[in-house]
Design a protein that fits this description.
mainly alpha
């Protein structure tokens, strides 16, 4: 597959926010208060940071690595 990632077409400031959410967030995010009724829910519902985004290309690796 060739070509630029669609993520690289958006402004850097927004990409940085996406990197933070993907790389630093270790729980599910539920919009509009949907989801578990308690803040103390099982560790099995947690997901690790998704570092695979750093493997897309060199630019995304460089930008995302700064966040870590």
């Amino acid at each position: 597959m060739t070509g630029e990632s669609p993520l690289l077409k958006i402004p850097r400031e927004i990409r940085d926010q996406i990197y933070e959410l993907v790389l630093l967030e270790d729980t599910f995010v539920y919009p509009y208060s949907y989801g578990p009724s308690t803040a103390d829910w099982s560790q099995s519902n947690r997901i690790p940071p998704q570092t695979s985004i750093l493997l897309v290309n060199k630019q995304m690796n460089n930008e995302g690595s700064v966040i870590l």
